[in-house]
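Handoff note, outgoing to incoming analyst
You'll be picking up this chain. Sequence as last confirmed:
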Amino acid sequence: MPINAHPDYLAAEKEYLSAESLESKLKSLEKLISLSPKHKGAENLRAQLKTRYKKLKEQIEKSRKAKKSSGKKGIKKEDMQAVIIGFTNSGKSTLLSVLTNAKPKISSKGVSFTTKIPEVGMMSYGKGVQIQIVEVPSVGSEYYDKSVVNTADVVLVLITKLEELDEIKKLTENCKGKKIFVFNKSDMLSEKEKRKVSSNLQSRKYNFSLVSAKTLEGIEELREKIFTGFDRIRIYTKQPGKEKTEKPIILDRGSAVRDVAEKIFHGFSDKVKEIRITGPSSKFPNQIVGLKHILKDKDIVEFRMK
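Most recent structure output, in case you need it:
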């Protein structure tokens, strides 16, 4: 306590000592500095208070940065988004790295909960189709983010044993997206065991795949199932006398030619003079159709303008 300390200083000192949060201590310390005696005998006190103030401010800043870095990673949902969920050590990170361009941290054997924030990657499907894949922290961990899972278009339920199905089913009851049950580590199963797993999943009427993220068994089939799970179609366009575009237009299943025309001509679909279709929805190549013609995946549409 300084000599000749003012009663206001003593009150501020008491407030500082009883403060519980760092921010309230800093505020009290500011008051202490402003009320500290100005005579020469209190120089050491003022220096100590200023040093304490500087250290406390640095501590608060460090704490704020730590909270910011440990918070949830913001995820901007793309037009097509799938999430990978599963228990710890089910191979979620390895599957994400196999399907996408992401390089997540992969846990060592026996290490739990390596993934603490969602990991995001983009999966290429064919030419020009990009699908966002999100790996969420393990089901059952404190980091599991059900909000991302519940709003995803497709949910990849990753399991390594059938006993996990019932528990995961309870935890994903509010999922809006289509579920694909992915039995991972199939390279560790005999042919008889694979048949048993397939039979069990078929009996439950699940959409499923048996894969090995290690040997890549079943990965291409899974890619196709992920895309078809979105109920989207790829439509290619072409100009008369030229090749079709490499990048397709992605539309909802059941879309008509008018939907393609609106995407290209932005409200000027009535300017189309003639439409020719080649592909699954046409009876023959270059079939002439109208704007109401319903399209199918991989159709090629050619517009002739008025």
